[in-house]
Amino acid sequence: MLKVIEAWGVDHMYGYPGGSFNSTMNALDIEKERMRYIQIRHEQVGALAAAADAKLTGKIGVTFGSAGPGATNLLTGLYDAREDHAPVLALIGQVPHTNMNYNYFQEFDENPMFADVAAYARLVMTPESLPYIVDKAIREAYKHQGVAVVVIPNDFGYVQIPDELYSSVSPTDHKDRPLPQPTDLEVDAVLEMVKAAKRPVFHVGRGIRDNGAKLVELSKKLQIPITVTGLAKGLIPDDYEGNLGMLNRAASKAADEIFAVSDLVIAIGADFPFANAIYRTHPFKFVQVDVDEAQFGRHHYLDQGVWSDAGAFVDKMLVRSTDAEPSSFFQAAVADMQNWQAYLDHMLDRETSPLEFEQIYREINKIADDDAIYSIDVGDNIINSFRYLKLTPKNKWVISALFASMGSGVPGALAAQLSFPDRQVFHIAGDGAFSMVMQDLITEKKYDLPIINIITSNASLNFIKSEQDDIPMNHSGIFIEDQDFAMIARGMGVEAVTVRASSDLPAAFAKALEVTQAGRPFLIDAKITDKRGIPVEELELKQQDGTWVETVNPSYNANRALTHISSVQEFFAEYDGGELKSLPEIFAEHNVPTDK
């Protein structure tokens, strides 16, 4: 079985031993020169790490758990893999087949539990079939870009079977899959919609892959600004003036504002989990470009669907289009983004005591290698990373995107450093998320993984606290007990430092570089305030009497925990954004017409 997995190019797997998995542990010992066993301290970490491996490399990740609780502990990571379309193989221990159906210790029917999460789930029925079933499981995981589960009665692993070539791997597995291509008719129809639109916007997902530069060319040619999903961060150059960034909550002000006034949205390779809220705030024409025709209409009522590879669609749009006249709307979008970027730069450049979150990202950007890899845990750090972290196509980064599982940061960093041992790896997590998996800091120590761990610690589940700000309720359940994470890290043999003011950061990050360059992990416990980052998703726009009007959502500060504001400018000032301009101001400066 292990030789089959090795034949697919896998060189490490994650898990924790149990009595029902001892035959595979024996095999891992025999194969230790070819298959590296990574001992994690919780099966959830192993499954999340396997999912992160797949997201970062495109190659199947492998994890295992023993019968009973070992199996159930895997589920969170396996659902993360399913939701983010990451191929993962999970090997599950089972009691010896002679004890099955006798209510034996830790025995239960495991297949129904995995029926929902797995595209392929099988209980091995004979020792001879085990290698075949695992080979088939890997094929199914790749085919469905999801989870495959194989349950193995423990005694089967000790049975001698013929030494034959059980793997089906062949050179044909390395061929590029054919992708759907757009027709001239489809592209011309989209171009006609562009000509009829006054305020067109691209919304681009990770399906754009390595075609970001081509999309920039098309954006300039057609004078259409670009908004992106979170997973497309870095695929379109951040310094392109027409790249407005992300929508919704982990957003730039410019992206939310410009999208809110759009009359044509062209979504390209975008799987946007917040579409049902954001796409329905106002009417617009909708074009969806996707390689999976089953996705058409998933996000919005469809005016035009184009079943096509994103890159091929952009290529044909470039060929069949003519240069658009300079657009006041496009220039206003650029100005809006420049105004937003100036705000972000202002927030980064401040010195604060007590420490605030922005300066942490300033220091990360200073010391990060061009090809650094980031594992970003769920919570405010997702918003802040999207806004402040400098990412390019050279970087890799991993999050739990659609499932949004807290505690994904440590396993993502483990996967990054194991799969890319020669690259710099950062792990960024809040105290709530890190607390869920911090036992596996010892795994970084055990395997000498030089990860820079940055814990933003404010004794609050701040992402949820911000949500509760806008609900008529008291804050409930979101304040957590503070911990000395640096001391905890040192107790595990990991060097660490605590910082409480921005003036402490340069020395802390210099030490992090020194230690990790020597091949050891390091942890920075950054004690930050629990302030809320500016919630640009609360801005609302509409046309009224022939002019654009911008207001703040009436539900903002519904629990009255924040300062009362009565205007957009007061809202900006509350978040140290006195130089921010409203979109109507920017439209007036650029003479952008309304629909009347």
Automatic annotation (TrEMBL):
<dbReference type="InterPro" id="IPR047210">
    <property type="entry name" value="TPP_PYR_POXB-like"/>
</dbReference>
<keyword id="KW-0560">Oxidoreductase</keyword>
<dbReference type="InterPro" id="IPR014092">
    <property type="entry name" value="Pyruvate_oxidase"/>
</dbReference>
<dbReference type="Pfam" id="PF00205">
    <property type="entry name" value="TPP_enzyme_M"/>
</dbReference>
<dbReference type="InterPro" id="IPR047211">
    <property type="entry name" value="POXB-like"/>
</dbReference>
<protein>
    <recommendedName>
        <fullName>Pyruvate oxidase</fullName>
        <ecNumber>1.2.3.3</ecNumber>
    </recommendedName>
</protein>
<dbReference type="Pfam" id="PF02775">
    <property type="entry name" value="TPP_enzyme_C"/>
</dbReference>
<comment type="similarity">
    <text>Belongs to the TPP enzyme family.</text>
</comment>
<dbReference type="InterPro" id="IPR029061">
    <property type="entry name" value="THDP-binding"/>
</dbReference>
<feature type="domain" description="Thiamine pyrophosphate enzyme TPP-binding">
    <location>
        <begin position="377"/>
        <end position="525"/>
    </location>
</feature>
<dbReference type="Pfam" id="PF02776">
    <property type="entry name" value="TPP_enzyme_N"/>
</dbReference>
<dbReference type="InterPro" id="IPR011766">
    <property type="entry name" value="TPP_enzyme_TPP-bd"/>
</dbReference>
<keyword id="KW-0786">Thiamine pyrophosphate</keyword>
<dbReference type="GO" id="GO:0047112">
    <property type="term" value="F:pyruvate oxidase activity"/>
</dbReference>
<keyword id="KW-0670">Pyruvate</keyword>
<dbReference type="InterPro" id="IPR047212">
    <property type="entry name" value="TPP_POXB-like"/>
</dbReference>
<feature type="domain" description="Thiamine pyrophosphate enzyme central">
    <location>
        <begin position="187"/>
        <end position="316"/>
    </location>
</feature>
<dbReference type="InterPro" id="IPR029035">
    <property type="entry name" value="DHS-like_NAD/FAD-binding_dom"/>
</dbReference>
<feature type="domain" description="Thiamine pyrophosphate enzyme N-terminal TPP-binding">
    <location>
        <begin position="1"/>
        <end position="111"/>
    </location>
</feature>
<dbReference type="InterPro" id="IPR012000">
    <property type="entry name" value="Thiamin_PyroP_enz_cen_dom"/>
</dbReference>
<dbReference type="InterPro" id="IPR000399">
    <property type="entry name" value="TPP-bd_CS"/>
</dbReference>
<dbReference type="InterPro" id="IPR012001">
    <property type="entry name" value="Thiamin_PyroP_enz_TPP-bd_dom"/>
</dbReference>
